[in-house]
Known about the structure:
With 244 residues, the protein is of the alpha/beta class.
Amino acid sequence: ASSSSPASAASNPADPNATKQPFVIGVSGGTASGKTTVCDMIIQQLHDHRVVLVNQDSFYRGLTPEESERVHEYNFDHPDAFDTEQLLECVQKLKCGQSVQVPIYDFKIHRRSSDTFRQVNASDVIILEGILVFHDQRVRNLMNMKIFVDTDADVRLARRIRRDTVERGRDINSVLEMYAKFVKPAFDDFVHPSKKYADVIIPRGGDNHVAIDLIVQHIHTKLGQHDLCKIYPNMYVIQSTFQI
Ligand code: CTP
């Protein structure tokens, strides 16, 4: 199904500042759903544009000493685990064409590297990826396109066990305990309900080449319109949404 509506005043290309704004894509989905693979495939196919990836994980709050001591009781899947104000500020700056310093998060020690940041430069496309990037309305409102990667829970759990034991230094019992105590309930309470905000839902994640091709074509069209707007500033853009 598809629907279209006239462009809002904010996207009126008669305003030259509006046309210069980067295209912001939100990519959400449960843990280990394949969000990173989907983002990598989009980035690869948009090789003729400047694309940057921002991970919501970078904005995990640092734990207090008490929380660190009882890390097994900490819920990393709750929206409060993230510094959403900092994430919001970061995406707002990028959207205005400014460079930002993004924190680097270490999953093994559950905290950010204290003095190391990753510089993210202004670009044509900004991809914001994470389990809860659709949770906060202010963050959602910055997105031009919202993608939800929809992968079966058993596939996600299997991947999560492999990833956490191999890459994040965890033992299998702690992974399963954390999954049952926090990850699954938070998916049901926060992640799954945010699927309703998605413009596009991709079944089977990174295996779904057709969906990714369609998404990339759509982004190309949108970026083309941005370019056209610079050439023909009086032309109006028709915005549309679509579902797979
Ligand atoms: N998490 C963790 N330890 C921390 C912080 C977070 O194990 N110190 C876990 C949370 O439980 C949360 C997950 O990290 O469920 C979020 O990362 P996830 O979305 O699984 O990682 P991605 O690589 O982005 O996932 P994908 O496979 O979809 O690309």
